[in-house]
Design a protein that fits this description.
Largest sheet: 6 strands, mixed
Oligomer: single chain
Strand content: 5-15%
Strand order of the largest sheet: 2-1-3-5-4-6
Order of helices and strands: HEHEHHEEHEHHHHHHHHE
Distance between the termini: 65 Å
Radius of gyration: 22 Å
Number of strands: 6
């Protein structure tokens, strides 16, 4: 009997060897800094990230960098003229997933960033995205992708980067109409189905969008359905490793559904995932017969840099949010986009915005040229 068990265990070990393989990540880290921050604001960012400037690679992100992907996708008002968002990225082991924490981003949410990074072709990393004052955050994705390419030495596909930027803006715009969790859930759910089932037919993609909106108790307009379908048809032509995306997609859908108090339907793909989980658990049980208990413990998610931020550096007037509840201060408000980013502060040609909130911080000041403009990455009104 024992000989048979050993034979079965060896067979399962071979069958699941690819699944349990862990690829070690590069230990390097990269910080991107918005080009329009002054020295004091930069110092605040590094203090929040918990690193010294000379201990990491530092890249500057300009408004020109953002326009490379945002023009033609976002409105001129959303793109703006200056860049304030910063990012800190840490590659992690394969299977660790994408974990996001944000500070002072009032329009873009951590789950939006998490979903769009999968579209960009990123699978495993920890990301911090922040600004020294409240900004929309639509420019954060540019810095994250730039940092990822630098720290890994991997060049992301240009089409995927464009799709990721389009998805971020589309999700944000949709969130203003139907709610952040609904918008993120629908986009991720549709993307999951399209990639996992290799769906390229336009009519089928449209039906998936309609079915998903029903699941999330949302009625989309024909224009919204068409916009999502157009993006998904382009995404369907891309090459993705779905096995590495499945858990990330599921975590986003589960989180948004839980927040909304809805139950996701279990379809064929859910059954397949259940079967895979059964055999995984069976494999781990056999493995446990021949290993110490310490060796069979399942590794927990490595949150790395998300756990080492100095949240107190911003004071009380800050928005901190994350895909991981354990790293969010209990008193921090969450983000729920309800309107486009608000206007830039009135500045003299040589003056930079202060890191301290002012008495009229909730007002809608004008730009340098006294032309009102809601911008991509500028101080925005406080989210209630």
């Amino acid at each position: 009997m024992r000989k048979k068990l050993i034979t079965m265990a060896l067979g399962l070990t071979l069958a699941f060897s690819a699944q349990t393989m862990v690829v070690k990540a590069d230990s390097a880290t990269v910080v991107t800094i918005g080009a329009n921050l002054n020295d004091e604001q930069k110092a605040k960012i590094f203090e929040y990230f918990g690193v010294k400037e000379d201990s990491v690679e530092v890249l500057t992100v300009t408004n020109k960098d953002e326009r490379e992907y945002l023009e033609g996708v976002a409105s001129e008002a959303q793109i703006g003229k200056r860049t304030y968002s910063c990012a800190y990225i840490e590659p992690t082991n394969e299977g660790n997933g994408i974990n996001i924490k944000t500070a002072n981003l009032s329009w873009v949410t951590p789950y939006m960033i998490k979903s769009t990074l999968t579209t960009a072709g990123i699978y495993d990393c920890n990301v911090l995205a922040a600004a020294p004052f409240k900004v929309s955050g639509t420019g954060a994705l540019t810095g994250i992708m730039k940092a990822f390419e630098s720290v890994t030495g991997e060049t992301l596909d240009e089409e995927k980067k464009e799709l990721a930027t389009e998805e971020l803006v589309m999700t944000g715009d949709l969130a203003e109409e139907i709610g952040s969790d609904q918008a993120t859930g629908i986009i991720t759910d549709v993307k999951d189905s399209v990639i996992s089932q290799n769906i390229v037919n336009a009519d089928k993609i449209e039906q998936i969008i309609i079915d998903s909106s029903t699941t999330y108790n949302v009625s989309l307009t024909s224009e919204q359905v068409d916009a999502i379908a157009g993006m998904m048809e382009r995404l369907a032509k891309q090459d993705y490793d779905y096995d590495r995306l499945a858990d990330t997609f599921q975590s986003i859908k589960d989180s948004t559904a839980e927040k909304l108090g809805i139950e996701l339907d279990t379809d064929g793909s859910g059954i397949i995932e259940s079967i895979k989980k059964f055999f995984t658990n069976l494999f781990n049980w056999f493995k446990g017969l021949f290993a110490d208990s310490e060796d069979t413990e399942q590794p927990s998610t490595d949150l790395g840099i998300l756990d080492t931020t100095n949240d107190e550096v911003w004071g009380e007037d800050v928005i901190i949010d994350s895909t991981e509840e354990s790293v969010v201060p209990s008193a921090s408000p969450t983000v729920e986009p309800t309107a486009e980013p608000t206007l830039e502060p009135t500045l003299s040609p040589t003056e930079e915005p202060s890191t301290k909130p002012t008495e009229d911080a909730d007002q809608m000041p004008e730009t340098e040229d006294e032309t009102p403009m809601a911008t991509e990455d500028t101080p925005s009104e406080e989210v209630q």
